[in-house]
Structures are given as structure tokens and as C-alpha cells.
Amino acid sequence: MSFTRVLIANRGEIARRIQRGCRKLGLESVAVFSDADRDAPFVAEADHAVCIGGAAPSDSYLNVEAILEAARATGAGAVHPGYGFLSENAGFAAAVEAAGLVFIGPEPDAIARMGSKIEAKAAAEAAGVPVLPGYRGEDQSDARLLQEAEALGTPFLVKASAGGGGRGMRLVSDLGDAPEAIASARAEAQSAFGDPAVFLERYAPRARHVEVQVLGDTHGTVLHLGDRDCSLQRNHQKLIEEAPAADLPEAVRDRMRAAAVRLAQAIGYRSAGTVEYLYDPGRGEYYFLEMNTRLQVEHPVTEAITGIDLVEWQLRIARGEPLALTQGDVQFDGHAIEIRIAAENPAENFHPETGEITLWAPPADVRLDTGVECGSVVGHHYDSMIAKLIVHAPDRTGAIRRAITAIDAFAVGGVGLNLAYQRALLAHPDFAAFRHHTSYLPEMFPGGWTESSADPRDMAFAAMALHLRLVPAGASPWESLGSWRLTAPAGQSGAAFYWDTTKDEPIRMYGSGSGLTAIQPDGQTITVESAALTGCRLSGRIDGVPFSRIAYVVRAPSHWRVHLQTPAGMTATDLRTLEDQHLQRATGGSGVADLLSAPMPGAVAEVRVALGDRVKAGDTLVVLEAMKLLQSLPAPVAGVVTEIYCAPGDTVAGHAPLIKLDPEENT
Q1: 78, 69, 607: which is closest to 320 by C-alpha?
Q2: CB burial readout 56-70, b (16+ within 10 A) else e
Q3: Sign of CA dihedral 318, 324, 326, 331
Q4: Nearest residue to 390 via CA among 331, 335, 350
Q5: At residue 551, what are phi and psi to the nearest 5 degrees?
Q6: Which of left, alpha, beta for 632 (phi over 0: left; psi -120 to 50: alpha)?
Q7: Which residues of the chain have pLDDT under 50?
Q8: How much of the chain is in helix, strand and coil states, percent to nearest 5?
Q9: Rounded to whole angstroms, how far apart are CA atoms 210 and 206?
Q10: What's the pTM value of the predicted model, to 2 decimals?
Q11: How many CB atoms sit inside 10 A of residue 17's CB?
Q12: In Å, what is the CA distance from 474 to each residue of 467, 534, 543?
């Protein structure tokens, strides 16, 4: 079981995380990458790297033969699957071992057994682990499933046996809806997992998601490394994870941990794994949900409170080493929180964001597991999660405060992220009071979440940062800003003008660093003494009181973007100079009202119109697949379809024209 070189069958932040674990033990790493990831950081940082196919996961990260061939070509002795892709594929684990390589994970049989939700629940019951009432029988006929549904009563869930992530799951609140729910769950399960088998399970409406980390070696020892709470979810996808699980009765916590160890021992589990539960606070009861036979996305919070490196121990266990600690050696210190950072726009129904990262300035003194850096391109081929921010503090209140502080210092340009949304979750009183559960988001934001608008003072500070970037403190704008400047009324110095790209009236800037005055369009005036932009920090005095804020000024193609730290978090403001304003007017702007363009790179899934069709504004014209999500693209205006530039199956670039309309007013 000895090996010195590990092939990492994954990408992004988890590939970099495993590389760090390899370096810690003096092992070499092999990166496999797709055409789309050729310039990614995890490729550059590996000791060896092999391209295994095209951008589509089926051509690369799910291509078992290409991965095994890369292992043979580079002399790798072991394969680490990370999470996602092939990490819980028993066939892949078996193929790795059949090739004479070490699979860094559990036995293929354990993966297969726990991969079937039906078999996993049977194993849990046999090990004395509570499970939700329901039907998990082999008879999958409609008649039997409907009979069991009636006996179970509503509400209940129809769930795919081979599923996960909410796919193949339907909630039934009325028995009359059961036939359709079963049929649609089966169809989705077949499409997503190649297995139409489903089971029925009682629905716990206000349950929490609590999980226990286990670690087993090849010598029969299994330990638990504490618990985590992952209850804050959107569409069954975790948003924020924390350890240990807060507001959990200690007797229940102890039983959960012991049950997880019993189950892992019963199936002869090795490596890192997670036993997941639903906890019903109203009943004070917990129920087995599933077992993830891999490293979890949220493993860093367990590492933070235990000091135990899970990746290191995965590698050691794969080499045959026994666990060098007992259950009594596992100590828990403080509280940790992990925030999943995704390239998406929560204010627009979590619309995926793509493009080149032009600014990447994360906070200092916190752990950041990331797959990107400045200059990285976020494409549409893979999951939108690009990083994880992990904080650790003596208690939960301190961890929440530290997480918010870290987000407030995080500046990113070029690609929109969900940081403001995650900040709103952390700052919500219901999160602090631990009133949330797995379906709680609609209660936290009943009308949906919208990003708070910029404070007028913050807009002035953003314009001030841009002004100081263009006119260093003490310099005259007449000497530094070129010829497009206007004079102020007689007797006053010249002014520089900056336009918020969403407004018509400019912010006027007078003076210099010794006394810089910004006049807002509404007439509000702010004067800053000793104003300076030093590196990425805007500072000065207002009425004699010093202030200092993080400020990054980045050039975009047609404007400047100022990332400014504010009391409400990090904001991004787009501003134009007078030159930019003239160029914008000269080119007639960038919007074309009668043209539907791709908002991001993607693959065309459907074209729902034909030439000559008359459409209404808002009608879906094209369905685009990007980052595993389907985006319905609406008609920008009412009119007649005159040109179609794409077809199903086409891969299109961001901003590529898709459909041309002759607006209704012309027809």
C-alpha cells in the first residue's frame, strides 16, 4: 500500500486542498485537467499535470479510462477522488484498485452499499440507528407505492434511492398528488442517476441537518470527530456550515455520535466519511438521512475545532497506517463557520456569473480554500462554488462576527459573487438565535432577498477614491486628468466630474487631498481633510474625526469600478469620468433593446421560437445551460422574430447574439 505520487481526480479548490495534504507528507501530486482548466491554479501548482479531455465533465473528470491512463503515464500509485464527480462511484473505486492503484477512500463495497439510500437505511436500522418511518421495499410498482403512501400519510417525501442534492425528490402534502410525484421523481432519478428506484419517507417540516464526521482505519478503529450543522440550505444545497452543531441537547449529541461510529463499524468503513441526520427539535429525535462516503465540502470546520487534518489522515490510512489517536484524544475547541462562495447573483434568482476575475483581494488572517486567483476565468462548465471562507473563534457569536468582518474585507472584481447574500444570512437575527431549519430561507426573506442600495455618502467616498487614483493627493486635476475638464464658477478651482453609471447627474469633486469636497447630485456635500488613497486604503478626516476604509479601484472596458468597504459590507460602484461619458455617448451605448444576447457562456438547450413568430416581452425564447443550471432567457421587447443565430446543442460565448426581434412598435 506504499505510494509516493498521488493523482487527484478532481479540480478547483479541492484539488489544491489535496495538493497541500500531499506536500505535508512529502508526496508528489498529479493534476488531471480539462481543456477549460488548462490555466487553472491547481494545474500550475501540481508536480505533474495531464490534460484528459474536453471541457464537458463527461469528456474529462468523469472519464474513468482517461484518468487511469494518466495515472499509468505519470507513475502515480494512488488516486484521490476529492468530492463530487467520481468520488462516490463504486465502479470507479473498483477500477482504480483493479489497475493496481490505491483508492484513497473507502472500500468499493461500502461506497455501493451507502450509495443506495434504500440499502443505507437498512444498514442503519441493522446497526440500531433511528430512521424515518417510510417504505423502502423492492416492490416498485405504482400500486405498492401508492398503498404505502396511504398507510404512511401526508406529508411525505418521494426520494430517489441513488439520488442526492435534492434531485429526484418530491414533497407530497395531498395524497391526490402522489401518482404525479412518484412518476416525476422516477423520471428525474433515471435521468440524473441512471436508476429510477424511489422510496417514501415521512417529512419532518422544520428539521435541522446535523452530521457527524467519522474516520476509520484499516485496522478496525473508527472514531468520530464531532458534529456539524448544515441547516441553512437553498434547494437542498448547503450555504453555511458550522461546527459543532449549536443548540443541540448533549444527550442527543452523544447518541448521534455513537450511532455514527456504530454504523461505520458495521460496514467496515475506512477513510473519512460523514453520517448525516435530520434532527427534529419539536420531538427531540434524530433520524438517519444518508452516509457520504467521501471527504465533505464542509470538512474544514471540523479541522478547525479539532486540529486534525482530515486529508492528511486520508492519505495515511490509505498507506495502511493505524490511527494514532483514541476517541479520548479528540478534543473540541471553540466554534467554526464555513461560507460557500459561489459565482452567482442571488438578487437575480441566483443567476450564474462567469468571466475573468480582474480583482481577487481576500481578507487576511482567515482560512480561504479557493480554486481561483486574479486572472482566473470562471466558466459555465462546472459548479458555481469557487471558494470557501472558514473562520474560527472561541464561541459561535465570535465566529459569526469574525465571518462578517472577513466578508466586509473581501473584494472581487470581474465576476459577481454571493458574498453580500451570505453576509445577510450571517447578520440575520434568526441565524444568531438559531431559529432556522432546512426550509427556513423563505421565512428569513419573505419577499425575496435584494441587495441594499448604496448609501449616498458611500457613493461620494467611491468617487473620491477614483479621483485620488487619477489625481494623486496634492496634484492639480488640470495637470493630471487631461483636457476634458470644465471650469467652475468664477473664483473657484476647476472641478472633476464622475457619473454613477445608473444616473444622469454627476458627482462633482473640488479641491485636493488637503481638502477634498464631493457634491452629490442632490446637493449633499462631504468634505474630507487630508484625503489620501494609499495602496488599497482610503483615509482622511471628516470634521476632525479620522476614518479609513478599504478601497480598490479597477478599470473596466468602459468605466471604473470602485470596491469600497462600507458599514453594510463591501460594495462595488461603477463610475465614469467625463472622457468615459463622451465615449459612451459617441458609441450610442452598449444596450440593444431588440437583440437577445447570452448573459454568460453556455450551451443552448432549447430554442422555443421560429422565424416569423410574434412574441411578447418576457416570453422565453432560448433556454441556456450554464453551471449545471438551466436559464430561461426572455424576450427583451414584444415583436416578431427576424433572425435566429443559434441552435440546440450550440456552445455560445457570453454576450453572443441569439435572437433578433423587430419590435412591436415597428410592426
Answers
A1: 78
A2: bbeebbbbeebbbeb
A3: negative
A4: 335
A5: -150, 120
A6: beta
A7: 478-492, 589-591, 667
A8: 30, 35, 40
A9: 13
A10: 0.84
A11: 23
A12: 12, 13, 20
Place of cell 435541522: 208
Give the separation between CA 510 and CA 492, rounded to whole angstroms: 9
> pLDDT value at position 76?
98
| CA–CA dist 167, 190 (Å, integer) | 10
Query: Which triple of cell numbers denotes residue 533?
Result: 488613497
Query: Which tens digits make up the pLDDT trace of 27-41?
Result: 999 999 999 999 999
Q: What angle do CA 557, 559, 565 make, to 5 degrees?
A: 115
Name the grid cell of 12.
478547483
3-state secondary structure of 586: helix
Q: Which of 544, 535, 523 is nearest to 460 (CA)?
A: 523
Sequence-distant (≥ 6) Cβ neighbours of residue 518 within 8 angstroms: 460, 461, 463, 464, 507, 508, 509, 525, 526, 527, 528
Cis ω on the peptide bond leading into residue 155 (within 30° of 0)? yes
344 carries an active-site annotation: no
Residue 153: what are its φ and ψ, rounded to 5°?
85, 160
Backbone φ, ψ for residue 119 (5° rounding): -65, -35
Max CA separation in the chain (angstroms): 91
Q: Which one is catalytic: 88, 211, 290, 338?
A: 290
Peptide bond into 244 cis (omega under 30): yes
- Burial readout 261-277 (b: 16 or more C-beta within 10 A, e: otherwise): bbbbeebebbbbbbbbb
155: Cα within 13 Å, side-chain hemisphere: 9
d(CA 415, CA 356): 7
Give me 553's grid cell: 479601484
Q: Which amino acid is at 108?
A: P
Q: Which secondary structure element, helix H or strand E, spans residue 342, and what is its range? A: strand 335-342
Predicted pLDDT at 487? 44
- Grid cell locating 158: 418521494
Q: Where are the beta strands (DSSP E) in 9-65?
A: 28-34, 48-53
Whether the Cβ atoms of residue 348 and residue 420 lie closer than 8 Å to each other: no
- As beta bridge partners, residue 633 has 622
pLDDT for 473? 56
For residue 339, list its beta bridge partners: 240, 389
